[in-house]
Amino acid sequence: METYSSVYLNARRRLREVGVTAYELESRLIVMHATGMSREELLSSSKKYLTNIKTQKSIEKMTERRIAGEPLAYIIGGWEFCGVPLIISNAVLVPRVDTEVIAEEAIRLLCETQGSPRLLDLCAGSGCIGLAVAANVPECRVVLADNSEDALAICRTNMLKNHLSGRVIAVMADALAKPSEKLGKFDMIVCNPPYIPTAVIAEVDISVRGFEPVAALDGGEDGLDFYKAIAKNWTAVLKDNGLLAFECGAGQAEVVCGIMAGSGLNYIRTVDDTLGIKRVVVGRKS
Question: What's this model's pTM, rounded to 2 decimal places?
Answer without folding.
Answer: 0.94
